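Input chain follows. Return structure tokens only.
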Amino acid sequence: MTSSNTPDSPVHPYTREMAMIHQVFRRESRLLAGLVQDVLPGDTARARVLAEHWRQYSVGLHAHHTGEDEVLWPVLLPRLDLDAEQVLAMEAQHRELSDGIAEVQVLMDRWQARALPEDRDETAEALRRHHRQLCAHLDEEERVVMPLVALHVNEEQWRAVGERGLSETPRDRLMIALGAILEDTAPAERAEFLARLPLAARVLWKLIGQRRYRRETDRIRGPRTPA
């Protein structure tokens, strides 16, 4: 079974929602490597901005993975037989990714102190390795494990996973997190995702969230160039 989107097997809502969240980590890990590589030698102010963005990213990724390990997999595993090995492989990959994240953090701390070019290059290369490892993991999870989630996890149990992620997100970062999820979504997906949010959250997004997210991405990536 796969999560391919065909007329006979439409993408399950859980799979689609997970893919939206995964896209945040794919995009930000890819961008970070390039942004770090572009920092001029000695620009410690810019290095600190990117080091803080890395910290926010890595904290979010860790929360996402621990939410799966502690909330989603325990619900799924008792319902599986031979397929349990595929879920256990995800847990093992989470541990491997944690080792890579720790390596990047050490390099990032060293680089931001003086912004030396050799430290920058080593950090950027470690970020590229992390991106490749992460994408391989997310691809496998979406292809192999999310169809099992769609079959065996009910709506209440899936909602608990989302609530765990929400509780791990600082209140002052909620609009940033929402913007990150919505950035690459198609209009129909965006409308569907927003429709599931409480009215107050939708109003906040329209009034302040969109502008706050744009300021954040401009700060990290540089201002957008008008078309």
